[in-house]
Design a protein that fits this description.
alpha/beta; eight-stranded mixed sheet; five-stranded antiparallel sheet; 9 helices; disordered N terminus
Length: about 290
Amino acid sequence: MGTGRTDERRAGAVVRAEVDHGSAELVQDADRPSSWTLLLDGTAQSHVDLADPEHLEFEYVRRIAHVADLVGEPGRPLRVLHLGGGAWTLARYLAATRPRSPQTVVELDGALAALVARYLPDPGEPGVVTAEARASLAGFAAASFDLVVLDVFAGARTPAQVTTAQFLAAVRRVLTPGGVYVANLGDGAPWPFLPGQVATLGAAFAELALVASPEVLRGRRFGNIVLVASDDELPVADLIRRAAGDPFPARVTGDGDTRAWAGDAAVVTDATAVPSPRPPAGFWGQ
């Protein structure tokens, strides 16, 4: 795990540091003093409440948490791999809701991970691996994880190398039979990215689901889309109920309607992959 560079400084309720891959800020929430937002190069990456790890501020994180809540028996420990670290928001949530869950966070930026560990300590701190997300998969044993969560962004875009059939083959190797894969990505009409991702997941897994805000799916704005995949039947009805009752209601589509998003898009390979589209100016705090 790396360390921040020497110009790290703290001014009031803001911590600023140069990390390995940009400039990081930890900004205290004026309304919830125990809450902090992590920004990297001006893009909001994570929000955590040190006093209440079950408080999830970001809409897409709440949606991933709904999926995680429905994996296996309620409250049972899960073996979880988080590809993309941020401030470990979901890992903190799962440590609170599923105690004794073995969790591993893969974070490319060692200095960022050190900054989070220093200022936002977590009593149930997961194991942190400093590595590129895709490359890290080779270091894990087969069938090691019940849940794999992809939340990797570089400059507010999902990197191309974690969008391909070859990447998903590596994910499948570390998932238990019937394990669940969840990916957070950003897209919007006219959908340059989502169809290819659905086609690629659909070729790799037997069951798919999608969770996103109705406004995004209607093409009214750019936003986060959570894709869910497994070889076992997904609890779509339960997920619909949770998403509908959330303070930020979302639409959930089951396997057939999710696969329809692929249209005639081809499976994405290492030879054809591109990063997700750049979000509009001002989006995600840019």
